[in-house]
Amino acid sequence: MAVVETRGLTKLFRGGQVGAVLGVDLLSREGEFLVLLGPSGSGKTTLLRMIAGLEEPTSGEILIGGALVNALTPRERRVAMVFQSYALYPHLTVHGNIVFPLKAQRVARADRDKKAAWAAGLLGIGHLLGRKPRELSGGERQRVALARAIVREPSVFLLDEPLSNLDAKLRASAREEIEQFQKRVGTTTIYVTHDQVEAMAMGDRVVVMNQGRVCQIGTPRDVYDDPADTFVATFLGSPPMNVVETEKALVGFRPEHLRPAGTISAAPGALPISFRFSHEEYLGAERILYGWLEGPPFHGSKAIARVPSTWSRRLTASEPAAFEVAREDLKFFDSETGRRRAALALA
Amino acid sequence: MNRRRQRWLGPAMLLPAVLYVIGLVGVPFVLAFFYALGDVKVGSVGWHFVGLANFRSVLENPTFRHALRNSFVFTIASQILVLVGANVLALTLKDAFRGRRFFRFLILLPWVAPVSIGSIGWKWILDSLYSVINWVLVRLHLVKPLDVPMWLGQPTLAMISVILVHTWHILPFATVILLAGWTAIPKDIPEAAAVDGAGYFRTLFQITLPMLLPIVNVALLFGIIFTFTDMTVVYILTRGGPYDTTQVLPSLAFFTGILGSDLAEGAAISLFLVPLLAAVAWLMLRTARRAEVA
Lengths: 347, 294
Hints:
By secondary structure, chain A is an alpha+beta fold. Chain A has helices spanning 44-52, 74-77, 94-104, 109-122, 138-150, 168-185, 196-202, 220-225, 230-235; strands spanning 4-13, 18-27, 33-37, 59-64, 67-68, 79-82, 156-160, 188-193, 205-210, 213-218, 242-245, 250-253, 259-260, 270-282, 286-294, 302-308, 321-326, 331-333. Chain A has 2 domains: 4-225, Rossmann fold (3-Layer(aba) Sandwich); 238-333, no CATH class. In chain A, the strands form 4 sheets. In chain A, strands 6-7-8-3-9-10 form a 6-stranded mixed beta sheet, sandwiched between helices. Chain A has a 5-stranded antiparallel beta sheet with strand order 13-17-14-15-16, with no helix packed on it. In chain A, β1 (4-13) and β2 form a beta hairpin. In chain A, α3 (94-104) packs across α4 (109-122), α3 packs parallel to α5 and α4 packs across α5 (138-150). Chain B is mostly helical. Chain B has one domain: MetI-like fold (Orthogonal Bundle). Helices cover 74% and strands 0% of the residues of chain B. The model of chain B has no long low-confidence stretch (mean pLDDT 83).
């Protein structure tokens, strides 16, 4: 087990024209489940591949367990990786796939078989050992890939969107399984995903990336409740945070914090907001209300409110409704840079 | 109406191919058996059954036995060279580099150029008097001007020349097939092997080559058929000489049956190709069924 650290890690493609990863500083904790989250093209997979040793950094340092590994091959880094495609060896059986890393380490046959049985048992695929990958379902393939990754007890696990090839139902159970599994083996894990639900549900900490840079590192609660900039604020959450322009700064608040007047009992009082309704999505447990904010300081900005469907009042477009946001739920961002800034007094 | 049309459409579409195979492969094949079991010569009338006399006479002929051996040497040696060469070329041409398209085109040239033109070029390159190879060797002082190798005039050298020229000719075909095979292996697989701790050779021999095997088989089986039944290179370069030392079965059958006008014996010689080609065809069908690059 080991911690992974990157210092100013940068990867430029096409002779420096395109930056995939730009000066990333990252420090994992021992046994942590660290999730790299970002939209496609944010550099998260490239970052993971550099840690694995599959991609050579343009500059910067990678340390695993405190040792500089830039010059080491993937094999010398003792990391295990699960690919998005699983990358199982199609001509080998499940057993052949699982023992391959051990063979590469020249582990004796008896030991190999014992460890393979252990890994297969851990993932519940003991009955599949004689099959070829093409005879397996998506979920089974994913388990084989995981078994192949853990069998030699690596110091770090790297997972590149391992759930994206599963159907929605299977994904939820596999998510839970990977999480439990990681807790059990306790190996430092770096997990790449573009799915914020996965990131929030699984990560001890989440690294939000955009355009090759790290926007914020924090617990799921941190990044959701205290976004460092407007990108994190709007990337996380569905529907995303309302970010509206005022004269002095950008003001953000989550749709669930924009509530019908009179439902907040928070101490510092609430900011009254006049909400002009446009249309609504009824999602069963909740209602998503779309509309505009009227009157100062938000004149005319679009906004979304998320109210429980137990609040059953019908809204009409003709008449603005009285809504409010607790002052502590307002987040302020710099109008120029989009970074978080100190709270301001609003009218 | 619709269903009836469907029932006839399939066979109707297949018919030209079946007729073609029957007319151009089946009939000559049956004819060859008739010839081999009779006493037919070019221009002779009538046919008399002679049993296995032709086969017996062929087997007693040292030239035939030499040609049979040559056929195997020719095929095996050139296929080994082709497989190694094509793999090296395919691995080189697989990755992007400047001018890759141009090099791919160059490599393909020997295959797309008519074999007669290529072989005539080689005939000059290997000529006893005007050989550029010998000219270079003499200038480099590697051989004496009056003691140059006779590339097509000495039995062993002639055989080597024939093998190398044929290899040169069919190498592009195998390269293209293997290139397709290498390209079909997802990039993730060798990367996974690298992360799993496998070095270059372990990845090559335990992962990528086994995945490539069905395609290597296809290249090999085609290569064997192209080589075992080929007589162009021998015919143009050496005409089977010197003293029939580079004869292979197809060229010997041609020289005996057509040029020597002994149709019966020519047919008997060519029928010796059948068992081997049948075995290759069977292997081919089996490989095609088993091909399982996921």
